[in-house]
Amino acid sequence: MRRPIETFWGERAAEFRLPLAVLSACFVLGGLAGCLLAAKTGGAGEDTLSQLLETYFARAAQHAAAVPWPAVLWEAFRWHLLVFLLGFTTLGLLFLPLVFVVRGFLLSFAIASFVRMLGSGGALLALAVFGVPGCVGIPALFVLGVQGWEASRALGSRFLGEGRRGLPYGRSYFLRCAACAGALLVCAGLETTAVPALVSGAAGFLSAP
């Protein structure tokens, strides 16, 4: 088990443990906050959530028009592009954890809202909507975030004069970026083919008497 991990992360695998722990904690904290907010939403907020979910449900059941490819690619790549760019600045030390908090919050809030409004059927619909993108997008986000945060830390140490730590912008760094980009392209393709069918099927199942 150790060898595949070391092969993927390269010779600096041990240095990525701290970034992984930090970003994982931030993602989980954001996720917990999203669940708590969704659980406490009531009154006008609950009515708004209900209307939004009903609209989404109706469009899915009616096989809404396909989204243009540029919009699909932007949806698939926007978080990862931000994380990738932050990895080349010292700002990544602060903002990469913040990005993971926000991403965890938004994802958990959306899923928890589906479940709150639609019960057990909401879990099925959430799986159809977020399952495929999440299974590909979240691991890719962590790969980019972990190596990006470590790179930002190395840049920061040089800026503060704490020694000339080696920067991780090598062949392995960009190969991992390329692998993530390829996975996201596949994910974007699935979002235009498999995901609409899954959402439509889930919508039809939930609307059945």
Largest β sheet strand count, sense and barrel closure: none
Distance N terminus to C terminus? 48 Å
State the order of secondary-structure elements, H for helix, E for strand. Answer: HHHHHHH
Alpha plus pi helix count = 7
- Specify the helix fraction band: over 70%
- Overall, the morphology is globular
Radius of gyration using CA atoms only: 20 Å
In round numbers, the mean pLDDT is 80
Task: Write structural notes for this entry.
By secondary structure, this protein is mainly alpha-helical. 82% of the residues lie in helices and 0% in strands. It contains seven helices and no strands. The longest helix is centred in the C-terminal third of the chain and has 40 residues. The chain is globular.
Quick rundown:
The protein is an all-alpha fold and 209 residues long. 82% of the residues lie in helices and 0% in strands. It has helices at 2-9, 17-40, 44-61, 69-86, 92-118, 120-159, 171-207.
Secondary structure layout plus pairing:
Elements: H1 2-9, H2 17-40, H3 44-61, H4 69-86, H5 92-118, H6 120-159, H7 171-207
